[in-house]
Design brief:
The chain is α+β, with helices and mostly antiparallel strands and about 210 residues long. The protein has a single domain, classed as Electron Transport, Fmn-binding Protein, Chain A (Pnp Oxidase, Chain A). It contains six helices and nine strands; from the N terminus they run ααββββαββαααβββ. Strands 1, 2, 3, 4, 5, 6, 7, 8 and 9 form a nine-stranded antiparallel β-sheet that branches. Strand 1 and strand 2 form a beta hairpin.
Length: about 210
């Protein structure tokens, strides 16, 4: 494929300071709601999560946002013994990227990371479908497996070990809060003259600056 020929002109919107306001968390809530309401974004809460190990080697993967707290933290859940869990244990800092292609928008979040409490984890875990709760027991995320049959056998074993709807939270499973110290909003514009507004923590509030595209 001629990748160099793949391009599009962004024309869906603009991002002006007056419309953006002074609170990036409020702006984010509005943007993700618009992504959901559009009906064109398959999973508006999908986000790329970037972490790094103790040597600084980066890794990234897609995860799902499950909450934006009243204090403005971005929450997701995972196996804490996975690669990302290990890296967050070594370096409790992360970056997130949301990409809503039909709206020609992206949001970048950077901040320190802290684990959710046991009560918060249990509260969210109880909302998951039973198969997902069983899957959390069955999969030792990021560890090698001989093949699909072994993985499916582990699922059946976990299913048999936890009959009914009462499936407890695995001890290795939980959530993380990304507490942002920077949030950047990107709106595609024609001629690659995109709008970029970056908010950074400033005392109890936020400062805002426009960045060149």
């Amino acid at each position: 494929m001629a990748y160099r020929e793949m391009r599009r002109s962004y024309r869906e919107g603009e991002l002006a300071e007056a419309a953006a306001g002074d609170d990036p968390v409020a702006l984010f809530r509005g943007w993700i709601q618009e992504a959901q309401d559009s009906g064109a974004v398959l999973e508006p809460n999908a986000m790329a999560l970037a972490t790094a190990d103790r040597d600084g080697t980066p890794s990234a993967r897609m995860v799902l946002l499950k909450e934006v707290t009243a204090a403005g933290a971005f929450v997701f859940y995972t196996n804490r013994e996975s690669r990302k869990g290990g890296e967050l244990g070594e370096r409790p800092r992360a970056a997130l990227v949301f990409w809503w292609e039909p709206l020609e928008r992206q949001v970048r979040v950077e901040g320190d990371v802290a684990p959710t409490t046991d009560a918060e984890t249990a509260d969210y875990y109880a909302t998951r479908p039973r198969e997902s709760r069983i899957g959390a027991w069955a999969s030792r995320q990021s560890r090698p497996v001989t093949g699909r049959p072994e993985l499916e056998a582990q699922f059946h074993e976990a299913d048999a070990a936890h009959p009914g709807e009462d499936v407890p939270v695995p001890p290795w499973w939980g959530g993380y809060r990304v507490v942002p110290d920077a949030i950047e909003f990107w709106q595609g514009r024609t001629g690659r003259m995109h709008d970029r507004l970056r908010y950074e923590r400033a005392g109890d509030g936020w400062s805002r600056v426009r960045l060149q595209p």
